[in-house]
Amino acid sequence: MKILISATTKQKCDVLNCKNNAEYCFAVKGRASRCYMCADCANKLANDALSLLTPKSPKNAIKRISDKREQDKNANA
């Protein structure tokens, strides 16, 4: 399912304080049938969404535990 569709009409970006021409649109419910976005706003929205949804790597936790064990061994030796 494709959410962002290339805009076929010349519209302005619907994001607050953005005056760029829209390159993408997506369907919305309510009075407006479509919401238009420029490429910059679409990229910023995607980056914000991914920063909230991307989990932290489990390798970091494993490395931290192994480093702590190594420090404990060195301190006891």
3D architecture notes:
With 77 residues, this protein is an alpha+beta fold. It is built from two helices and three strands. The chain has helices at residues 39-53, 58-76; strands at residues 5-6, 24-27, 34-37. A three-stranded antiparallel β-sheet has the order 1-2-3. The protein is rod-shaped.
Order of strands side by side in the largest beta sheet? 1-2-3
Determine Rg (CA atoms, Å): 23 Å
**What structural class do the secondary elements suggest?**
alpha+beta
| Residue share in β-strands | 5-15%
The H-and-E topology, N to C, reads as EEEHH
Number-wise, the strands total: 3
Biggest sheet details: 3 strands, antiparallel
> How large is the count of helical segments?
2
Unreliable residue runs: none
Shape: rod-shaped
Q: State the separation between the terminal residues, measured CA to CA.
A: 59 Å
Mean pLDDT: 85
Oligomer: single chain
Helix content: 40-55%
Topology:
Layout (H helix, E strand, L loop, with lengths): L4 E2 L17 E4 L6 E4 L1 H15 L4 H19 L1
Antiparallel strand pairs: 1-2, 2-3
